[in-house]
Amino acid sequence: MSLINRILSMCESYAYMRPIIINNVIDHLKYGATGELLCHNIRNEWLYSNVTSRDESVFQFCNIDQKKYSNDIPSLKDHFMNAKQFCNNQLPFSFADSRSICEQTSLNALKIGDKKYFSPKNYTRFKYIAFCIPEESQQFFYHWQRQRKIWWRKFSANPGRFSLTEILIDENGQESTEIRAEFPWGQETIETIRNISTKMFDNLDPLEQEMFIARVGKRKVLPHVVESETSLEKAFMVFLCDGYADLPYHSGRREIFRFHRKLAPYKITFAAPLSNAKKADELRQLSIYLGLNLKKSGISTLILPNTAKKSLESQFTDLDCLGIPYTAILSDSTLDNGIVGIRNIETTLEEKIHVANLTSYVEQLIKNY
């Protein structure tokens, strides 16, 4: 079985996603319960990087008619006027879109082989459009390339797989570069960054162009545009394939997903060694109590009914396939002295803490990047 097929098999078994094929083309990715959480976390981290933590003002928009437009200018007029008002007509400011549903219109865009899973016909785009001060647009183009590459590397189990292509200049003088990820089946183009300058306004009539004029100090200028675009589906597949590992374990091997703790669908869960019915029920009740405390603190926690009803190794196999970075291991002694083990998916080593400190300890673990 090929690597991508092993990953897809795990995805279906553990409710990540399955590709929906119509007329021999992958129409879209259908997400399961675990996949929905992963999508939610990817979108949140993209918005944090592209909106929340930016120096300039970034306004969100969603173009529900994206399938009808070849560029965003027709749908950005009202948003642009509002942004100018908020920013007192002054550049720079930006827009971000993480919800528009788009359709691949070119047959060339529908990849073949293993690459097809990264580019379904229908996808949710992640697009950032910066309206720059003309004199600063070139420098921002270089800066934004670096920032986007850093973002992908930050969440990767193998940061070295990401690279930037050389800058290409088309017949219209538009500069572009791509971020690519290296996989066993070849390179995937996962994001494109373009320096459009003022070319996206060229097809507008003079009155429409006037709407997009802003100020730098007292000077009126037409903004220079830098944009970057990827998709939720690309990011989802990149982090799944990046996080997949087939590792030696005891006398055999184990398949796992290693997600960055910010992206992991669940941050922590519970496990306990096989026990008699009475002890198993007590440990399950303790896991529910501790799990609810974690959930109240905003920590995504998976509480399973089979705690202490299966062998530890069997529980670990399932939890590792779900990509859960930490497992709280309860035991008979936990009921006596309150000590719980925290198992790390990366090292499989345990750290002992008291249950009273569990929530605060896990908060610290997942707080930082």
Q: Could you outline the blueprint of secondary structure elements for this entry?
A:
Elements: H1 3-13, E1 17-22, E2 25-31, H2 33-52, E3 57-60, H3 73-86, E4 93-97, E5 101-103, E6 122-132, H4 137-154, E7 162-164, E8 168-169, E9 175-183, E10 186-197, H5 206-211, E11 214-216, E12 219-221, E13 224-231, H6 232-243, E14 244-249, E15 252-257, E16 268-271, H7 277-296, E17 301-302, H8 312-321, E18 326-329, H9 332-337, E19 339-344, E20 350-354, H10 358-367
Parallel strand pairs: 3-4, 16-17, 16-18
Antiparallel strand pairs: 1-2, 4-6, 5-6, 6-13, 7-9, 8-9, 9-10, 10-13, 11-12, 14-15, 18-19, 19-20
Tell me what the structure shows.
There is one protein chain. By secondary structure, the chain is an alpha+beta fold. Helix content is 34%, strand content 30%. It contains ten helices and 20 strands. It has helices at residues 3-13, 33-52, 73-86, 137-154, 206-211, 232-243, 277-296, 312-321, 332-337, 358-367; strands at residues 17-22, 25-31, 57-60, 93-97, 101-103, 122-132, 162-164, 168-169, 175-183, 186-197, 214-216, 219-221, 224-231, 244-249, 252-257, 268-271, 301-302, 326-329, 339-344, 350-354. The strands form five sheets. Strands 3, 4, 5, 6, 7, 8, 9, 10 and 13 form a nine-stranded mixed β-sheet that branches. A five-stranded mixed β-sheet has the order 17-16-18-19-20, sandwiched between helices. The longest helix has 20 residues, at 33-52. It is elongated, with a radius of gyration of 24 Å. Residues 277-364 form the Anticodon-binding domain. This is DNA polymerase subunit gamma-2, mitochondrial isoform X1.
